[in-house]
Design goal:
This protein is mainly alpha-helical and about 200 residues long. It has one domain. The protein is built from eleven helices and no strands. Helix 7 packs antiparallel against helix 8.
Length: about 200
């Protein structure tokens, strides 16, 4: 039986995952002006940074992308909002809009994360595990489109959009345990061959 401390930890981690998914999906599909404002302020980078704390040392694989976003935010005073918005819109139109339907469907994952966090917070272990399984099902359903989008963003974009692509691949790797960074980019990933990430530690209980 999970201990109260374990249940509290899982609830917190799951809530952070929900926020990180929302931030990532907002970057890909929410009204651009609000996203650019959050990128310029550094707000989105901080949300993503908090959302991967549960990865421990493996979160280092996202450090490069997050540092890129930090630099972007610090340099915003030297750029106009209009210029940043135009650049952001151009990148989204070229890369994200063609797969907008798949991106929006992934909002189900964030909603399920929030439901899972609520289940754990009230001590409903069975519901928590079931909701985690439902998240995996949704991710697997769209597992082809999103890694391809991440790879395109990394290979064909620069700056903010390249960083978002790196974060997308890292998030998918963390959520599924499949090394998409290595599979689509040939880059070292966070999961050893034959291994998997277990966000909630459920496999150890």
């Amino acid at each position: 039986m999970p201990t109260p401390d374990f249940i509290t930890q899982v609830s917190r981690v799951t809530a952070e995952r929900a926020e990180a998914w929302d931030a990532l999906l907002d970057a890909l599909s929410a009204p651009a002006a609000g996203v650019v404002e959050q990128l310029r302020s550094g707000g989105l980078a901080e949300t993503w940074r908090t959302g991967v704390n549960w990865l421990g040392q493996d979160s280092d694989l996202m450090t490069g992308a997050l540092l890129t976003l930090d630099v972007y935010a610090r340099g915003s005073e030297r750029r106009t909002f209009a210029d940043d918005l135009a650049g952001f819109d151009a990148g989204r139109a070229a890369m994200a809009e063609p797969v907008a339907a798949a991106i929006e469907s992934m909002r189900t994952v964030a909603a399920l994360c929030r439901d899972e966090a609520a289940a754990w917070s009230r001590g409903d272990v069975t519901a928590g595990k079931d909701l985690r399984a439902q998240q995996n099902d949704v991710i697997q359903e769209h597992v082809v489109v999103l890694p391809e989008l991440g790879a395109r963003l990394v290979r064909e974009s620069t700056g903010v959009w390249r960083a978002i692509g790196q974060l997308l691949l890292a998030f998918l790797t963390a959520e599924t345990g499949k090394d998409y960074q290595r599979a689509v980019l040939g880059a070292p990933g966070m999961v050893k061959p034959g291994g998997r990430v277990d966000p909630n530690g459920l496999a150890r209980r």
